[in-house]
Amino acid sequence: MVAEQIVARGIRQPTVLEALRAVPRHLFVPEDARNAAYADHPLPIGHGQTISQPYIVALMTELLELSGGEKVLEIGTGSGYQAAVLAHLGAAVYSIEIVAPLAQQARRDLERAGYAGVHLRTGDGYRGWLEEAPFDRVILTAAPREIPEPLIDQLAVGGILVAPVGEGVQDLVVVRKTEHGLERRTVEAVRFVPMTGEAERRPGAPR
Fold first, then answer.
1. Alpha helices by DSSP H, 14-76
2. What digits encode the pLDDT tens for the residues 86-144?
3. C-alpha span between 19 and 76 (Å, rounded)
4. The pTM is what?
5. What is the DSSP secondary-structure string of 80-145?
6. By the 8 A CB rule, do 57 and 46 touch?
7. Which of 31, 126, 185, 189 has its CA 20 to 30 A from that of 152?
8. Active site includes 95?
9. Nearest by Cα to 144 from 116, 159, 118, 163
10. Which helix (H) or strand (E) holds 153?
11. Which residue in 52, 67, 79, 95 is the catalytic one?
């Protein structure tokens, strides 16, 4: 998986490659899909959600520029695999999942894989995790139409946010928060499941 899907497509950070080799991806997919756990595509994990393609996990992780010890907020725990990769890299991970059964399964799978230290919450990631803010890094594994303002607010100065943004085919964007404002760049086109819990926040919609 690492050699053919990740290194071959340009991921070079040694710590990221080591984490992708070490974290047992098959433990984070349903049993009936484990024969495809290391294949080059996303897999369904139930409740309309997916575990991301290995290359995309590696790319987003590399874009976070982790050196170890960062406090990371993840929006969309899903299977727990991305959280495990972040934890393996030495991050203190705070992950929010809106779908309660997925959050419960991710907790079990993270513990089984040896990543019981990941902090999990069931709830609406749109609001972030205010009492644990600020975060050095924020990563979204589901696509909002626009980056939720609370997540920008909870990002520390000097911090990095990585997210798919838009509807349909989305832009994978990197936002760096500086003392002078936000620096934003687009990396490539991606396709993620939509971020749930914020659909009602269209202009004029009741809250």
1. 14-22, 54-63
2. 999 999 999 999 999 999 999 999 999 999 999 999 999 999 999 999 999 999 999 99
3. 20
4. 0.93
5. SHHHHHHHHTT-EEEEEESSHHHHHHHHHHHHHTT-TT-EEEES-GGG--GGG--EEEEEESSB-S
6. no
7. 189
8. no
9. 163
10. helix 149-153
11. 52
Q: How far is CA 114 from the centre of its chain?
A: 19
> What is the rounded distance in angstroms from the CA atom of residue 207 to the CA atom of residue 205?
6
Query: Which is more confidently placed, 201 or 43?
Result: 43
pLDDT at 197: 74
Instruction: Please check the confidence at residue 205 and state whether its pLDDT lies above 90.
Output: no
Q: What percent of the chain has pLDDT over 70?
A: 95
Among residues 31, 19, 44, 33, the alpha carbon closest in space to that of 115 is found at 19
Distance (Å, whole) CA 1 – CA 55: 9
64's tokens: 């976070």
Which residues, other chains included, contact 51 with Cβ-Cβ below 8 Å and sequence gap of 6+? 25, 28, 29, 42, 43, 45, 78, 79, 81
Q: 184-191, long-range: CB within 8 Å, 24+ apart, which pairs?
A: 187/59, 187/63, 190/56, 190/143, 190/164, 191/164
